[in-house]
Amino acid sequence: MTTNAMRRRSFITLLGVSASAWPLAAGAQQPERVRRIGVLTALPENDPENQARLAAFHQGLERLGWTIGRNVRIDYRATVENPERARSGAAELLALQADIILANGSLAAQVLQQATRTVPVVFTSVSEPVAQGFAASLARPGGNMTGFSNLEPTIGAKWLELLKDIAPRVARVALLFNPDNPPVTLFARSAEAAAQKFAIELAVSPVRELAGIEGVITRLGEAPGGGLILPSDSFVLSHRQRIIELATRHQLPMISSARNFADDGGLVSYGIDQIDQFRQAAAYVSRILRGEMPADLPVQQPVKFALVINMKTAKALGLTVPLTLQVAADEMIE
After folding, report:
1. Within 13 Å and on the Cβ side, how many CA atoms surround 10?
2. Does the domain at residues 155-273+306-333 carry the CATH identifier 3.40.640.10?
3. In angstroms, rounded to a whole number, what is the distance separating the alpha carbons of residues 94 and 116?
């Protein structure tokens, strides 16, 4: 073979090798596939508490390498404690072909469980996930759902204790809750068991509409010594401005598990740090998007609680917050 022939043969071979590498090089330069996350929240989109929770979720995703507009897209729907709206929101998110859905609250988890057994679901703020059928066990959920529980039954006694510490003259307390949220009854049992210890007459007050809320608070305010307990519930949360307005009018010290009551003018909040749960949920969403199975990720029990005291409200009610509680508080609103 001549030298020129050998050169031509080498060039053709090199050209063939280079050409075979082109698809690989082109593939390496393709943009990362955008994953789709659905979020079915309990609160309306413009609710400040909802915005704070979602901001924590976004920050958690960002820290784990998920950037909105680059490799992830997020679609939002809200249940607003309306079963029909919850079902339509779940159907819309599934129609958008979400890779995974974040479900905030038991209603959101319930409608998603009914709608899909294949799309991964990470829930937050769900009481008794095993009893409600969302997980086979806390350690091994076993299906397409896992997440974060907000169940701490003994917290009812803690609410009474805190209320009595801050407002010692409280003698009659109404525990206001939505009876369509069964786990709240566990908190009520805890509070009832502790009521005698704190010399408090406890009225467990189920309400399903605003008129019921107004009636309970008005009757409570007809005599001195009244107080309010408000477990976390989307129905109650959605009426918090009216509740705070009535409690202020009747000079009723109030404790809630949701910190936005304290933010908006309630006396004190003590409960599970919901914002932290959303931040943690981002880690579970990331792990599942990267290949782990929800069936293998244990349901997490609450570990972080927050005590927030509105000192301005305490002053308006003529209350002196004990120094021990001021020191213990995660935040004091001046």
Report:
1. 7
2. no
3. 8
